[in-house]
Specification:
With about 170 residues, this protein is an alpha+beta fold. The protein has 4 helices and 7 strands. The longest helix has about 30 residues. It is elongated. The relative contact order is 0.14.
Length: about 170
């Protein structure tokens, strides 16, 4: 799940890397079940052998194929290829299977890392990581991050370590 080591600069190491929680695939799984039920119904109810019935049957199978590619395969590939990686120097988003897309925010531009957990997120053990930075947008939301509280803690510790130059906090 981690990014390729060739994307890291000399002296840079991964602090935490993750992808969106698998709950993002619940919608596509539901669509897949509906398509399977539709396929079973089409197979069981196949009526006669005339040309009209065959054409309708082929059109229905073609429609199901389009649904599978658009609402199941595409979201799965997006989930599979999207990663969020914090290194000791930057936050990186990478996404894409054929056409790739990425964004990098240097850690020294990040001013805060917060999290939000709603009721459904609490059930699944994930949440939204909110990264506040010095860009025009000023806020980046990473939705459905697994174990978001631990990720926020690790990233905050790294930001603190960087701000203090790696010195230990003596508590005074």
């Amino acid at each position: 799940m981690s990014i390729s080591p060739k994307l890291l600069n000399e002296g840079e190491h991964v602090v935490v890397s993750c992808r969106t929680h698998v709950k993002a695939l619940f919608g596509p799984i539901l669509v897949m079940l509906l398509v399977l039920i539709g396929g079973i119904v089409l197979t069981v109810l196949e009526i006669g052998n005339d040309t009209v019935d065959s054409t309708i049957n082929y059109a229905a199978w073609l429609l199901m194929l389009v649904v599978v590619v658009w609402w199941i395969v595409r979201p799965f590939l997006k989930w599979w290829t999207t990663t969020y990686t914090f290194t000791n120097r930057r936050l990186m988003f990478r996404s894409g299977f054929i056409a790739k897309e990425g964004r990098t925010i240097p850690l020294n531009r990040i001013s805060g890392v917060d999290f939000e957990i709603d009721v459904l997120d609490r059930i699944f053990g994930c949440g939204t990581l909110v990264v506040t930075d010095a860009s025009e947008a000023g806020r980046v939301e990473l939705h459905d991050i697994p174990k978001v509280e631990q990720v926020q803690k690790v990233v905050s510790e790294e930001l603190h370590r960087q701000a203090t130059g790696g010195r230990a906090d003596d508590g005074t």
